[in-house]
User: Which sequence fits this backbone?
C-alpha cells in the first residue's frame, strides 16, 4: 500500500482542487489556456508544464511496455495528461500500484 498512498493522496487532493476551481471558473478551459499563452511569462510556465507532461507520457509508455502492457492501455492516461497534466501520471501511478499489489498477493511493491 506504500507505493499507492502518496500518489493517491496527491491525486485526490489535486483532482478535488481542480474540480472546485473549474466549477467556479468564469471562462472555459480553452479560453483560460489561450489567455495563459497570450503573455510570454505565463506562456513560459505552460510550455515548461507541457514539457514535463511529455516526459511523464514517455515514462508511462516505457513503463507499460516494460510491464508487457499494450500501448492502448496507456492511452487514457496520456489523454488525461494532455488536458489535466498532473492527473494523468498520478492516476497511472495509483492504478499501477494497485495492480502490483494485486499481482503480489496483497503484499504491495515499491514503485
Assistant:
Amino acid at each position: 500500500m506504500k507505493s499507492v498512498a502518496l500518489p493517491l493522496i496527491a491525486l485526490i487532493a489535486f483532482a478535488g482542487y481542480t474540480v472546485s476551481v473549474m466549477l467556479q471558473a468564469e471562462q472555459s478551459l480553452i479560453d483560460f489556456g489561450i489567455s495563459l499563452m497570450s503573455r510570454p511569462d505565463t506562456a513560459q510556465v505552460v510550455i515548461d508544464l507541457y514539457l514535463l507532461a511529455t516526459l511523464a507520457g514517455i515514462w508511462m509508455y516505457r513503463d507499460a511496455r516494460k510491464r508487457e502492457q499494450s500501448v492502448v492501455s496507456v492511452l487514457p492516461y496520456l489523454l488525461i495528461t494532455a488536458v489535466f497534466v498532473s492527473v494523468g501520471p498520478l492516476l497511472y501511478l495509483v492504478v499501477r500500484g494497485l495492480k502490483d499489489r494485486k499481482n503480489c498477493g496483497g503484499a504491495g511493491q515499491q514503485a
